[in-house]
């Protein structure tokens, strides 16, 4: 069989299961109102939770950074790619997390996927057992597959189950690995309980705060600030392409851990450092996150979340035959579970016809039978935007029920 025939058969199978994905072309920058494939839409799908990607101050900082530093970094960090701009960002982040992680030191990565790969493969050696939460992000799952460690999965938020597994483990090093905010459910991991288990069983806790960074905590420092945690057992990964509105990621942990990553993480060592202009602009982004702009947008998000959730609950009660449901979300990620793959894509298409973009999320991203509309809010959405979404969802529900 030729490769082309082989792939065509696989593509046909993907299509038959209503699992085919397609690119859409953004004609304007990410914002609550965006032109997609030439059509203006009200968007509830980006992870730009504070609306910083469209912030003029960030564009100015990026331009200033480009004038100062030019284009790319030119090399991997250990060769010559690590700039003063990179160092200013990691120094700021180390200071942010000093109250949460003793002897905190940060290192930067080009993406969250890369940061996760670095942490889990470098720390997950043959002496290590990784305890991986069932709903972890694909990058953590891929990283665990690449690691030499033994990998044991525990159930979603199943603290008791994890305790049993930790008690039975004879591994020299134990690494608990979890998303802080689950990206397709919007709920929070029981991080304080996981940290207590880590202390009890001499384990270490890797927390991927991709969706908590910038969003949770009074100053936007994320899940550790939200829960008021402090422990040298915490290894935090934050991403800078979501609430920070730019690109990149960081790991902050006890200095011995970050020093080891710098020596051993192959994808840190063998990959070109991010453009210094981005790092320069990240300093502005971090200032916006902790300052009045971030504070106001976080407050708006909390209010919009409550408004949306109340509206969705009313909608679900009005249409019990559709079998729609909510997840226990407490963040700007507020998914609406529809169930079937074809059903969710039909609902997403109806919304789009009504001028609203909410992506349908299907397996393997979520479990079979739990396909969902992943609604995400942005700190620059308004109450009127949320009301427009709810009205369009009501019309969609009526159409689907009548069909
Ligand atoms: C988006 C995401 C990542 C990957 O971060 P990128 O910077 O986009 O590569 C990692 N973990 C989680 C939970 C995410 O949602």
TrEMBL record:
Residues noted as binding substrate in the record, renumbered to the chain: 21, 137, 365
UniProt modified residues of type N6-(pyridoxal phosphate)lysine: 242
Pfam families noted in UniProt: Aminotran_1_2
Residues annotated as domain Aminotransferase class I/classII large: 41-392
Enzyme class: transferase
Catalyzed reactions per annotation: 6-carboxyhexanoyl-[ACP] + L-alanine + H(+) = (8S)-8-amino-7-oxononanoate + holo-[ACP] + CO2
Chain positions recorded as pyridoxal 5'-phosphate binding sites: 112-113, 183, 211, 239
One Gene Ontology term of the molecular function aspect: transaminase activity
Keywords tagged on the record: Aminotransferase, Biotin biosynthesis, Pyridoxal phosphate, Transferase
Subunit-level organization: Homodimer.
Task performed by this protein: Catalyzes the decarboxylative condensation of pimeloyl-[acyl-carrier protein] and L-alanine to produce 8-amino-7-oxononanoate (AON), [acyl-carrier protein], and carbon dioxide.
Family: Belongs to the class-II pyridoxal-phosphate-dependent aminotransferase family. BioF subfamily.
The protein, known as: 8-amino-7-oxononanoate synthase
Organism: Pelomonas baiyunensis
């Amino acid at each position: 069989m030729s490769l082309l025939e082989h792939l065509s058969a696989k593509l046909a199978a993907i299509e038959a299961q209503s699992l085919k994905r397609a690119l859409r072309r953004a004609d304007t920058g990410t914002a609550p109102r965006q032109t997609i494939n030439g059509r203006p839409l009200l968007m509830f799908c980006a992870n730009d939770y504070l609306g910083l990607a469209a912030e003029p101050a960030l564009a100015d900082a990026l331009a200033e950074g480009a004038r100062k530093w030019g284009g790319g970094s030119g090399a991997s960090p250990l060769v010559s790619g690590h700039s003063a701009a990179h160092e200013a960002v990691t120094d700021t982040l180390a200071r942010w997390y000093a109250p949460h992680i003793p002897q905190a030191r940060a290192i930067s990565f080009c993406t969250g996927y890369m940061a996760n790969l670095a942490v889990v493969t470098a720390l997950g050696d043959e002496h290590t057992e990784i305890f991986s939460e069932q709903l972890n992000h694909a990058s953590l799952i891929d990283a665990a597959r690449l690691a030499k460690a033994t990998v044991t999965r525990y159930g979603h938020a199943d603290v008791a189950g994890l305790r049993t597994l930790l008690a039975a483990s004879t591994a020299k090093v134990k690494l608990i690995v979890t998303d802080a905010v689950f990206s397709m459910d919007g709920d929070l991991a029981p991080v304080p309980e996981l940290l207590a288990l880590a202390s009890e069983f001499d384990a270490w806790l890797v927390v991927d705060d991709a969706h908590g960074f910038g969003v949770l905590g009074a100053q936007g420092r994320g899940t550790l600030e939200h829960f008021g945690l402090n422990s040298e057992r915490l290894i935090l990964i934050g991403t800078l392409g979501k609430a920070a509105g730019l690109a990149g990621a960081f790991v902050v942990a006890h200095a011995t851990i970050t020093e080891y990553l710098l020596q051993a993480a192959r994808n840190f060592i063998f990959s070109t450092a991010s453009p210094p202009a981005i790092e320069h602009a990240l300093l502005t982004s971090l200032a916006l996150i902790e300052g009045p702009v971030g504070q106001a947008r976080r407050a708006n998000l909390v209010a919009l979340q409550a408004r949306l959730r109340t509206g969705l609950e009313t909608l679900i009660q009005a249409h019990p035959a559709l079998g729609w449901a909510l997840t226990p979300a407490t963040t700007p990620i507020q998914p609406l579970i529809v169930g079937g793959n074809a059903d969710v894509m039909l609902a997403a298409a109806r919304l789009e016809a009504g001028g609203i973009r909410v992506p349908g999320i299907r397996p393997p991203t979520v479990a079979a039978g739990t396909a969902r509309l992943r609604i995400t809010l942005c700190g620059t959405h308004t109450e009127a935007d949320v009301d427009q979404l709810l009205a369009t969802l009501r019309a969609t529900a009526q159409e689907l029920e009548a069909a």
